[in-house]
Amino acid sequence: MWSHMTYGIILFTAGSCKVTEFLLSKGVPVDIHYGYGTPLHLAATNEQDKIVKILLEHHADANTSVTSLGSALMGALLCRSLKCMKLLIKGGADVNRMTSLLMTPLVFTAGRKDYTNFMQFLLKAGADPNIPDGFGRLPIEHAARRDCMEQVEMLFPLTSAIPSIPNWSIDGIISYEKFESAKPLDQRHLERAKAIFKSQADYAFRLKD
Fold it and tell me: Where are ANK repeat segments found (predicted)?
């Protein structure tokens, strides 16, 4: 019987489609957790798109998460493997899944200019730009704060207006975020929480009417 670690080591060192097929044919569970994730995590983070394809064809769960990484989709994104990302999404990966890193894949790309093409791909795949990170910040805020104009322009038409930003325009968002970045972190979070709460309360009141 193959141990969890043995399976992981073989898959990692071989990177072989034949070895993967052999192990699966011997009844090794496709979603076996070998200590650092599932085989799908391992293949995705090593840009092994052919193995990712085999595992998905054997019904590997594309949404299984691990503490240190999150989903296999996030692993593929971190390693900049567009091929693996496409396969994972086709295989049922949730593009809006919040990871243990307290962010969705889209949030991760925001503010990183060298990930702009990945942001575009995720948006086309159905990523929601209105899902914030674990601290309440939206992708467009990260992009604006880091002067990623192309990303801000991409996200702006798809993002709902943020109550705390008085001038809801591309220039207005960038100016506001630059101003906010100079404030202490605790003050920014408190002001944002108040604005979101007020917006939710106003919305609930309108629904009641």
Answer: 38-67
Q: What does the angle CA 123 – CA 126 – CA 131 come to, to the nearest 5 degrees?
A: 80
Q: Residues 113-129: what's their mean pLDDT?
A: 98
* CATH number of the domain within which 50 lies: 1.25.40.20
Q: What's the start-to-end Cα distance of the chain, in Å? A: 64
Structural domains counted in the chain: 2
Tell me the HSE value of 101 on the side-chain side, using a 13 A CA sphere. Answer: 17
Residue 50 has pLDDT above 80, yes or no: yes
In this structure, the answer to whether residues 124 and 90 fall within a common structural domain is no
pLDDT range class, residue 185, cuts 50, 70, 90 = low
Q: Dump strand ranges (E) for 16-145.
A: none
User: Same domain for 86 and 118?
Assistant: no
Query: What number is the average pLDDT over the span 116-143?
Result: 96
Q: The domain containing residue 161 runs over which residues?
A: 111-209
